[in-house]
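Chapter summary example.
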Amino acid sequence: MKLLGIDYGTKRTGIAVTDSGGQMAFPRAVVVMETKQRFWEELLATFEAESPEALVVGLPLRSDGSDSLTTRQVRNFVESLKRRTALPVYLMQESYSSLEAEAMLREAGKKGKKAKAGLDAAAAARILESFLNLDEAKRIRA
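The structure predicted for these 142 residues follows.
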């Protein structure tokens, strides 16, 4: 099953996809929030181009498991997403995907602007990898 991962942010949103068999995750793109209309057009066009069977959105919780302002923003995004697509949407708890992605990019020798440009998509790939490694019975449908 092909999945599309989303690391939502109010300024930039990272996109990653799996291979058609749903085994490996790859950073794909970053959608910049210029206007809400443009953001949704670009995001939905990405869904159409990639043809995923489901979406996985990273849900950043505090270390104690409670919601933060960012968590509430992601939950609002997910509700908007569900109104705009018939694809199943899953939530994947993530707290440090951006930090992990940044470390990965640094190890690969990418620094500065090059690393910043791919950070959000790399974080989305980390979210997808975590989801792929999660037992199917523990996957949370939004």
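To summarize the output: Strands lie at 3-7, 12-18, 25-32, 54-59, 89-93, 140-141.
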